[in-house]
Design a protein that fits this description.
The protein is an alpha/beta fold and about 375 residues long. Helices cover about 30% and strands about 15% of the residues. It has one domain (about 50-370): SGNH hydrolase (Rossmann fold), CATH 3.40.50. The chain is built from eight helices and 13 strands. The chain has a seven-stranded mixed beta sheet, with helices on one face. Strands 7-8-10-11 form a four-stranded mixed beta sheet, with no helix packed on it. Strands 1-2 form a two-stranded antiparallel sheet. β12 (about 255-260), α6 and β13 (about 315-320) form a beta-alpha-beta unit. It binds 2-acetamido-2-deoxy-beta-D-glucopyranose (NAG) (2 copies). One 2-acetamido-2-deoxy-beta-D-glucopyranose binds near residues 47, 304 and 323. It comes from Acacia crassicarpa. One of its GO terms (molecular function) is O-acetyltransferase activity. One of its GO terms (cellular component) is Golgi apparatus.
Length: about 375
């Protein structure tokens, strides 16, 4: 497998950055400086900032990508308001680099990016494939689905952007005589993940499912089997199995690992202090300012703790998108996803929309890590 970092490409990009400086004058120079601030040191917290109304947004129209799934395609499903499309994320200490899909494809030549997780991961994967396609609209692509695995390919760049549906990361096994067993300490899929160059994981929402939506009959850890346990505890145990896999298997010169922090839902208006609103329906603007009434998400605290306690915490870059997404109560499909009040969706995100920002940050982190 090719080495991840390509010093030659990086040098030429630095060179083109400095050319741009002279071409576009002071404004561009300032932008390049703040972009380089990210590139040259890790001081800037990309996750601490505010949403700003921005006429130049969105980065694409949903009609640019006819492969966006119905559940995310809010404008096609008739969402009438447009403000939610027009916000860009502004970190307090620096500027988020402009997303340059062609640059990303060139840097990734011969490599593959894989998302592993649930439908929030699918949401981010669809956003990224659309952002990339929009950057090189005349370059051919293929978009194939094979069971739980989706593969979006840009043959001209020899880049694959994949999505593997795996909602718990640890194993869920159907054992004929027993039932469906969720094994908190077993992670067979890890064998498959090792070959990829960029891995972006997520897992949370399925840990909350009960009743008919709960896909297991038993939870197993070692030789202990139980019917149920505190879901945050189960989540923590599974995440520890995952971080142990990362610690023991990931070679950082070949593979960059990201974890998409908890994507918040907005099913309860109490969190943002609006009386009488218990869905995200009708929300047209983000929460103003930097903080969100509800405080930190309990699952987010588990993720942070488990990552901190890794043998090598540097192996995982946390896409710490929880707070910035909490501010976007306006970004969900609500009745413009699968449609109507029975399909009320305050969990996923419209595309274009919030996951585009997650991918801008992913891009910033990738070009930074590539140095
Ligand atoms: C994630 O971002 C929030 C909001 O900026 C911050 O409070 C928290 O400390 C961050 N977590 C980590 C692990 O950086
Ligand atoms: C269950 O696992 C524990 C710890 O790994 C071990 O000490 C114990 O002997 C095991 N019990 C059985 C019945 O296998």
């Amino acid at each position: 497998m090719a080495e991840f970092a390509k010093p030659v490409i990086f040098v030429s990009l630095l060179f083109s950055f400095s050319c741009l400086t002279t071409v576009h004058g002071d404004q561009r120079k300032k932008e390049v400086e703040s972009e380089q601030k990210i590139n040259n040191n890790n001081k800037c917290d990309l996750f601490d900032g505010i949403w700003v109304y921005d006429e130049s947004y969105p980065l694409y129209e949903s009609s640019d990508c006819d492969f966006i799934e119905k559940q995310f395609d809010c404008s096609k499903n008739g969402r009438p308001d447009k403000f939610y499309l027009k916000y860009s994320w502004h970190p307090s200490a620096c500027k988020l680099p402009r997303f340059n899909g062609e640059d990303l494809l060139k840097r990734m030549r011969g490599k593959s990016i894989m998302f592993v997780g649930d439908s929030l991961s699918l949401n981010q994967w669809q956003s990224l494939t659309c952002m990339l396609h929009k950057s090189v609209p005349h370059s051919q692509y293929t978009n194939l689905r094979n069971g739980l695995l989706s593969t979006f390919t840009f043959p001209e760049y020899d880049v694959k952007v994949m999505m593997s549906r795996n909602v718990f990361l640890v194993d869920l096994v159907d054992e004929k005589s027993v039932g469906r067993v969720l094994k908190l300490d077993s992670i067979e899929a890890g064998q498959f993940w090792k070959q990829f160059n960029v891995l972006i994981f997520d897992s949370w929402h399925w840990w909350l499912h009960t009743g008919r939506k709960q896909p297991w009959d038993y939870i197993q850890e070692g030789n202990q089997t139980v019917r149920d346990m505190d879901r945050l505890v189960a989540y923590e145990k599974a995440l520890r199995t995952w971080t142990k896999w990362v610690d023991n298997n990931v070679d950082p010169s070949k593979t960059k690992v990201f974890f998409q922090a908890v994507s918040p839902d907005h099913l309860n208006g109490k969190d943002w202090g609006e009386k009488g609103s218990n869905t995200c329906e009708g929300q047209e603007r983000p929460v103003k300012g930097k903080s969100y009434g509800g405080g930190p998400h309990p699952a987010e605290l588990v993720v942070e703790k488990v990552l901190r306690e890794m043998s090598n915490p540097k192996l995982v870059y946390l896409l710490n998108i929880t707070t910035l997404s909490q501010l976007r109560k306006d970004g969900h499909p609500s009745v413009y996803g699968y449609g109507g009040h029975r399909g009320m969706d305050c969990t996923h995100w419209c595309l274009p929309g919030v996951p585009d920002t997650w991918n801008q940050i992913l891009y910033a982190a990738l070009i930074n890590q590539n140095e």
